[in-house]
Amino acid sequence: MPWLRSLLHLAGESAF
Known about the structure:
88% of the residues lie in helices and 0% in strands. It is built from one helix and no strands.
C-alpha cells in the first residue's frame, strides 16, 4: 500500500 508508506513517512518526519 503506497499510501501507508507515505503516511508512515509523514508521521516519522512529524515525530522526529
